[in-house]
Amino acid sequence: MNIIMDAMGGDNAPEAIVKGSIEALREYDVKITFSGKEEEIKKYLNIEKNLLNRIEIINAEDVITNEDKPVKAIRKKKDSSMVKGMNALKDGFGDAFVSAGNTGAILSGGLFIVGRLPGIERPCLAPLFPNGERFSLLMDAGANVDCKPLFLNQFALMGSIYMENVLKIENPKVGLINIGTEEGKGNKLVNDTFKLLKESELNFIGNIEARDILSNDADILVCDGFVGNVVLKLMEGVVSELMGRMKNEILKTTKGKIGGYLIKDSMKRLKDKLDYSEHGGAPLLGLKAPVIKAHGSSDSTAIKNAIRQSKIFLDSGVNEIIKEELDRGGNDN
Amino acid sequence: MNIIMDAMGGDNAPEAIVKGSIEALREYDVKITFSGKEEEIKKYLNIEKNLLNRIEIINAEDVITNEDKPVKAIRKKKDSSMVKGMNALKDGFGDAFVSAGNTGAILSGGLFIVGRLPGIERPCLAPLFPNGERFSLLMDAGANVDCKPLFLNQFALMGSIYMENVLKIENPKVGLINIGTEEGKGNKLVNDTFKLLKESELNFIGNIEARDILSNDADILVCDGFVGNVVLKLMEGVVSELMGRMKNEILKTTKGKIGGYLIKDSMKRLKDKLDYSEHGGAPLLGLKAPVIKAHGSSDSTAIKNAIRQSKIFLDSGVNEIIKEELDRGGNDN
């Protein structure tokens, strides 16, 4: 199993990417192919020969930054670590691709270079979203801002297969993000999707109201990419603002200051629990080969975890099962 | 000035509605017309004669509950306090209508009974949303789940006039809720709306990312009613979940328990600040006469505040200014 790493993507690249990959080499039975500036990558490769033997480098002199326009960058920056890495994935040189780089570019590259699984209308970005004491797969978190009911139905199918086979959740529950719980609530897209999901063989548990997004039973939360991105970012913003303001309120009084000191550890625990960026990478589901988006601020541990996730993705045969299900047409009519 | 009150709408009706209205009669130069069960309303009317002289009652034997389907309830429950109250508003018997009842029914009644201002495509529910240390008008918070760019452009116009004349904010800033800050980000609706807003005479400050919804400069946050409702409810859910979990985390250790006790007041202050339900009613903008939706759990003080808000709405002549602006066509092309 050969995982292709975008060595230049992310806030801590290439150091965290290379170091995390080496940690993964020590722990898992994988090979690593780095795509990126060979010279810079080699700086961090003073390691044992037996590990070095499991590493390849595709030299790529250019880098796609967060300031680049996604589609344009994928088309024009042919010598970038991302484009070269994705081309290698497409050509079968490796089995999965991991990047902590420009999210939009990863999505565009996934679509235009790696390509969709036959029968899949749109690939979908699916991070694990902290939901109560567990996690739900939020689909779509931003890959498709304008959706049709069939797209959302396919997201639910892919998400169910992923949760069942990668996270080993039996008969995973699908919820539809909506502005009310009863059938008939919401906009046209959500209404029509409700009907498709109800008729499907998936374990559809109905609408999930936005106020219950942190406290519901769904393993998969389905919505279009605009709403999903709003949910993800709002959640991030509210948690961080709330923690900040809490601090301000607490520091206003001496009593509060002492109290704040005493609850510091509890707060840190809570913040970590709600931080979705801590929980590995987000797979881009529906592509011919696994593409995993690691968080931009990934450290070496997060990178190692993303590689672990790619390995489980590949081992579990998610893509093969998706193909079988689509051929069977079980969910698709 | 005669404010028509839905005496039977809300969790604490009719008591809180009648008592809040009496408080308003003592403080403001208004008349009150109650729509509802006369017998029940009269239970709370053991008051001075000079106040009684400023009260009328429209007897209505039926009530629209939160379980009723909005459109159906407005059509069928002709003898409900809400339908009778709105009809009285339409017929010019009063100047504004306040209800803490079924939100969907208020929206339907506003549209079908009271009617739109000429030139306005869709009325819009516009609560004050806690935004940093200030408030923004969130429009639309759920009245229109499927929108066109022109609707959103009109929301922005109405919101600007409301904030300028009711909340006395000079040259109010309009922000567009989006999944990125640059022009060109987001779905088709938001993209096309961006162009309209940029060309308008409004003080458009661009896209506001969901993560910055609690910390931005906009006085008006524009989005479709589906996204707006998700934002409002998610915010409510996250704040309440977070406070709950914080409590759980804190109670896990003795140190935390003492700390928690010491910060209790600070937490209460913060929670109140973020509770949008505390901040009066939400106007339904774009109707021929003001309709104000008070929070379902309103107590008598909240009801008094909603009446105060109706009074300012009427005094400020918002509707007249909206009509003038539309006639002028300044924002509408």
UniProtKB/TrEMBL annotation, chains A, B:
Pathway terms, separated by semicolons: Lipid metabolism; phospholipid metabolism
Keyword Transferase: yes
Gene Ontology cellular-component terms listed: cytoplasm
Compartment(s): Cytoplasm
Superkingdom, natural source: Bacteria
Family: Belongs to the PlsX family.
Cross-referenced PANTHER family: FATTY ACID/PHOSPHOLIPID SYNTHESIS PROTEIN PLSX, PHOSPHATE ACYLTRANSFERASE
Protein known as: Phosphate acyltransferase
